[in-house]
Amino acid sequence: GSIYPFEAFEYAIKNNIAITIASLDAAKAVCEIAEKLGKKALCHVKQDTGMGRIGTRRGGVFNVIEYLDKNPHVILDGLFTHLSSVETDPAYTEEQIGYYRDTLTNVHLKGIHINYCHVAASAAITARPDVHYDMVRTGHSALGLEPGFEPILSLKTRVVYVKDVPAGASISYNRSFIAPSAMKVATLPLGYGDGYLRALSNKAEVLINGKRCRVLGNITMDMLMVDITNAGPCEGGRRRGGRRPPRRRRNYVCGTGRKGGHD
Prior knowledge:
Shape: elongated
Number of helices: 6
CATH architecture of the largest domain: Alpha-Beta Barrel
Distance between the termini: 38 Å
Strand content: 15-25%
């Protein structure tokens, strides 16, 4: 099996894109295509040590490594695995790491050279510095969703319309929000067509003048409405933002759901 169609290997090889090899079948296919192209394929072998997602199980991974190592059209660029339970099951994590280390030992004993060994994704970057090896794989930690990390991304837009809304007025499709009292509401030119999840309707918050402003009603394709009653002076046409909110309170806006009782 492979995480992408074998026919995609040709494009990857031509453009020097590293390919994940998760089975012996994939190894054979990439060798055949690389030979046909007369180019070398960059390969990262995936060992399944217990995640149960993709990869050759434990000891069987060495057969894949040996097969690739013997082919002149392959560069063994990496060997990696993925830890499933760093935050919840240290014993199982240690077991997974043990399987990976056993494979590395066999690789070294056979004199096989692999450019990059990598194990740690976001959780292990902070919890297991002993398995950083040659590189790490930052996932949601790159968005500032792990303790000790600062966000590197923000999304900014402009207030394009401001209006006073009386009690009982409805906002957006299906009247999914009814104003409980008189409010000041701003419209932002941002919607699900821009990738802002519609599932965040009536749940997310944005920052305007450093104040949290709740999203009101259903998020539409290219606009959303927010409550700016307590946000201070605000007028249409000005870009708004503010200090980043604490990580735990920002989770809902980023779409990561609930964790530890916090939105």
